[in-house]
Amino acid sequence: MLDFLGDLRRTHTCGALRASDAGQTAVLMGWVNRRRDFGNLVFIDVRDRTGITQIVCDKESNPALHAKAGELRNEYVIATVGKVKLREPNTINKNIPTGEVELIAEELRILNEAKQPPFLPSDTVLPNEELRLQYRYIDLRRDAMQRNIELRHKVAIAIRDYLSAQGFFEIETPFMTRSTPEGARDYLVPSRVQPGSFYALPQSPQLFKQILMISGFDRYFQIVRCFRDEDLRADRQPEFTQIDLEMSYPQPERVWEVVEGFLTAGFKAGGYEIKPPFPRMDYDEAIRLYGIDKPDLRLPAFTPVRDCFAPENLETLGVHPGLPVIAIRTPKVGELSRKERDEIKTMFHTKGGAKLFEDFKRLEKSFPDATAKVREKAGAAAADLIVLVTGSTQSGELKSPGVRKVSPQELAIYASAGLLRVALAQKYSGRHGCFQPGDFRFLWVTNFPMFEYDETEQRWNAAHHPFTSPHEQDMDKLESDPAAVRALAYDVVLNGTELGSGSIRIHRQDIQRKIFHALGLTEAEAKSRFGFFLEALEYGTPPHGGIALGLDRIVMILAGADSLREVIPFPKTARAVDLMVDAPTPVSEAQLKELGIQVSKN
RNA sequence: GGGGACGUAGUUCAGUUGGUUAGAACGCUGCCCUGUCACGGCAGAGGCCGCGGGUUCGAGUCCCGUCGUCCCCGCCA
Asked: In the beta sheet, which residues pair with residue A199?
């Protein structure tokens, strides 16, 4: 038999009571976390998001209440009125903050019962993720999830407060907007009023925030949902939250100062002190040292070791004469078995003609002098794992790197090595111990190239986006040497994760036109895609720039989680499915007809 | 689009070279227990071995397909 709440009013949360409250009457409400039944004496742990308090039901002093306590099962929702009592010294529970007291129940109301859940919030081993997502409301009751969501809240509030104090306005922008063919795939929303036409959910509020600068808002921010219909990863969800901001009259450094400021505030809210300014690194340097544009600084950089080998050694090994030889050092890995060495091969995703030497021991037998030099140059201790990555003699004729410092074949080697470096670091994290909680290595990666060449489409693409400003000194190379043009674009990176990306934008119509031209867009094409924006640029646009950071990723790292799903209340699976509500689903013929949509069947 | 891992009681897992009736722990149900807090004790219920084919005298185990979850590559201006 269930009871009504009536006018019973909660006086304390389940984590609140302390020794100093002894003697008070308290009213607690929450879930039955566990029941320990001794026959004539029953203990009930009642739980809410703040903690757990022990309720005592004694048959001798209150037989009716004791009988009712016997009906309780896990996850029933109850209310209890009782006296807060100091526990006997030998019965104090030091494991919980409320462990010095207990509530002697005088009244017990069963507010709701619960079916036996597929798993319990108090379980120590996690069920598989499919089940957690299907029964997300139970999963979210778990202490760890409650903490993550609370952390997320605190970080977001701290960042809001900081930006507001710095004069940024939080301004909302539309979710139903216009599809722009560049970039990620759009999620589309059909229009009923205009059959055959579609809105798109924003991949980011990019053009709106630039228009807000044109509108004179000077400093804008928004903690905003973005949508991208691309394949998922542990750190990628189809809808995710960005801390988006834009400001007028900035140099890149002005944007960086703001980001360093709000990250300091956000991390402080998460319980960590970080010290800006963050180090800075050129994109080209990041590629040469780490093989990736989001270096994890917690582990050693590459060591170039071509000069350690005699030319005839390299020839014997089938190493290309013009390409770098780089050593990847992973600390303290120790002896590897034959099987473990073979696994390195499968971890190596070769790009272009990149070539791997995973068995350094064997190289040491054949080339003792050269390998000793490699060890020395890489600063390797005896237990450190060394693998070499280079270009094979089949890499073909070297393409000129042009003005850029890294040729395509070199890039292939660096990129392959960069992925292997990260994979090795993850696999042997238990051995090298370089991934410590609370160790936050921030980095600004700067001076990205303006354009990337798309081999399949035989044209230049914007590396960041087409509204990114080139370096003032590189304007003259837009036509003559697009590859050499540096963008005023920057990424903020934390422990090998890209937290955010931004740039100084183009504010001049003449330069914007040049960029579109370099991207192979005709005047007419540019006008049809971005006409409203190009027109806005003509009415007095101030210089402006900004950035957007992934809130989910920030909280994930702060929480020490390996997946965004741990910090998003209702996330989607790798196939972009919500297992709790079972979305997406087909819709009725009537709905489709109203929207003027036909679904092709095949 | 490609590669890899996994799928066995409600849950987490074990299950040998294919061989009797598929096990354990936790949870669940009942009984006992007045100081536990991952309580304890006794008894019990609970299985489409993801699904569909195939090989075999015989399949949880081998093969093919399929579905689902996870990780990675491509993709993510």
From this structure: A189
